[in-house]
Amino acid sequence: MMLAEDSTLLREGLSRLLAEEGHEVAAAVGDGDALVAAVAAAPPDVVVVDVRMPPTHTDEGLRAALEIRRRWPGVGVLVLSQYVEKRYATELITADTTGVGYLLKDRVAQVDEFLDALERVGGGGAAFDPEVVRQLLVRSAHVDPLSRLSPRERDVLDLMAQGHINASIATHLHISQSAVEKHVNAIFDKLDLSQAVGRSRRVLAVLRYLGS
């Protein structure tokens, strides 16, 4: 895996943490261009990248992440951000939800959650911070598609948006997997996604709330 973070202290801390957990950190760099160059030389399974990096500290990391997704679609991308950057999060999610994640940096301190997200992204899954999902799904009542869903369906969709599969959703909500499947199908019906096929329905169900 590779890591891009302009804070030397955080970069070194993450590198040490990941190494202690058995991950090989092939490169740890301080800007987006260096990350893209490192990936070009030897594409890893997954990269962890901060949204804001030099020189302008605006969206260099996010642009590097999107370029990596475009040029090396098999590389998982886990983006870290100090705050919920709605535009950046939406752009990343709408590009593709296979092997992608977006976490707030505070979540890194919760080591088990951070490592779980990293494993999911590296394995081709998705992992989105619950707070990021909550803010992205907020809509006013008169345009909010969530208004058609029951509270339990909202819970299921929230976990879907974080990248959980049905078995994981069942565990989180303490319900059976068959119950989760019923809720998921109800969500598809209420969002008029019944005619879509395969995994695309899950993607569309989430993107419908992101205004895409």
What does this molecule look like?
- By secondary structure, the protein is an alpha/beta fold.
- It has two domains: 2-141, Rossmann fold, CATH 3.40.50; 145-211, Winged helix-like DNA-binding domain superfamily/Winged helix DNA-binding domain (Arc Repressor Mutant, subunit A, Orthogonal Bundle).
- The chain contains ten helices and six strands, in the order βαβαβαβαβαβααααα.
- It has helices at 8-20, 32-41, 60-71, 86-95, 111-122, 130-136, 151-161, 166-173, 177-190, 200-207; strands at residues 2-4, 27-29, 46-50, 76-81, 100-104, 126-128.
- The chain has a six-stranded parallel sheet with strand order 2-1-3-4-5-6, with helices on both faces.
- The protein is elongated.
- The two termini are 30 Å apart.
- The relative contact order is 0.10.
- The mean pLDDT is 84.
- InterPro entries: CheY-like_superfamily (IPR011006), NreC/VraR/RcsB-like_REC (IPR058245), Sig_transdc_resp-reg_receiver (IPR001789), Tscrpt_reg_LuxR_C (IPR000792), WalR-like (IPR039420).
- Residues 1-120 form the Response regulatory domain.
- One of its GO terms (molecular function) is DNA binding.
- It holds the Pfam family GerE.
Compute the separation of the termini in Å. Answer: 30 Å
Radius of gyration: 17 Å
- The CATH superfamily of the largest domain appears as Response regulator
CATH fold assignment of the largest domain: Rossmann fold
Order of helices and strands: EHEHEHEHEHEHHHHH
The tally of structural domains comes to 2
**Counted beta strands:** 6
- Estimated structural class: alpha/beta
Question: Total helix count?
Answer: 10
Strand order of the largest sheet: 2-1-3-4-5-6
- Helical fraction equals 40-55%
Overall CATH class of the largest domain: Alpha Beta
Q: Which CATH architecture of the largest domain would you pick?
A: 3-Layer(aba) Sandwich
What do the pLDDT scores average to?
A: 84
For the sheet with most strands, the description reads: 6 strands, parallel
Name the beta content range: 5-15%
**Which stretches of 5+ consecutive residues score pLDDT under 50?**
none
Shape type = elongated
